[in-house]
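Re: the 380-residue chain
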Amino acid sequence: MRSIRDNAIKYVESRIAPCSIETAARGRTCSEYSTNHTQKINWTRGTIHHASMDGHASQSWNIKPRLMDHSTIEVRGAREHNLQNVSITLPRNQLIVFTGVSGSGKSSMAFDTLYAEGQRRYLESLSSYARQFIGQLPKPNVDYIGGLSPAISISQKSTSSNPRSTVGTVTEIYDFLRVLYARVATGFCAKCGDVPITSQTRDQIIAQLQGLEESKEYLMLAPLVRGQKGEHKDLFESLLRQGYARARVDGDVVRLSDAPALNRQQKHHIEVVVSKFEPKTTTRSKISDAVNESLKLGENTLIAIPWDEEQIKNQKQIEEEAAQEEDAPKRRRRRKASSDLVVSSEYACPKCNASFMPPTPQLLSFNSPAGMCNVCEGLG
């Protein structure tokens, strides 16, 4: 009778899948047949019930199921291809290299055993509706694999000669990470270091605008389009119907009645001019109304830029200079952006009062002009 008990415990510890042990640990009753289909074993939390199918009496024993160790990956009895009953323990969160002569089973262990089982378990976690389009993957020839997470396999051969291609871009994990960090991450001020970016009140924004240089006149802008392709004709017409007269398009302030024709294949930046103010002479109530309107249109963000009426008169001259020098538009936009005061009600530093544009996935991409380095252009 002791041999039956030992065989039952050994069977549960070495043959049962980790998901079944977890189910038993939650108190549910599960059933498995032994390899020769002559014994049926049911187990609940702390108890194994053995029911012999050859007429002998049933027996029960109390055991403690061994929980899966999440710090290591255990492989027992791998027999895929040329592997001969190999058992190994691999540490997690570390770089592991398989070495050996040709035909020693490196690829059989890494790809045909570990990766195949990780992919199979992931597909089995999907809904039955999704699995009907994928099909069922065969289980690798192995006794037990524990501590295994969903796996990703990249071929040893180079799939692309593009210098911008990385492991993250090939597997598309990089796209999900960019969205994750842009939406839920906590930002910190680049000037103050360890000061987290928080929100600020309308009164703080008004006080910041009233503290600007007195001798200058300013335009208050509401950003509407940030790096989006298109001609945006409908947007210009809609702004005209709402009573707005001017907008800044790709760094140039233009009249909406004479809006430029934009290339729909290029990305553009459009900010509508909400109000013109002077820090000391304009009343607080007028600035407050303009701030509320700008934050509403610009999704909690506004931009204040110094303004001079002479810029309108010199607009044609600037365009002529830009046509003569190819890279002049880029330098002109850079010069204007350096004098922009970005004010946000959601992303501001409470220490230095610096505001930032809302983070976007493009800001975290080395393939996007918004996120790449200006020196190496994202190539490192």
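Confidence is low (pLDDT under 50) at residues 12-55, 328-336.
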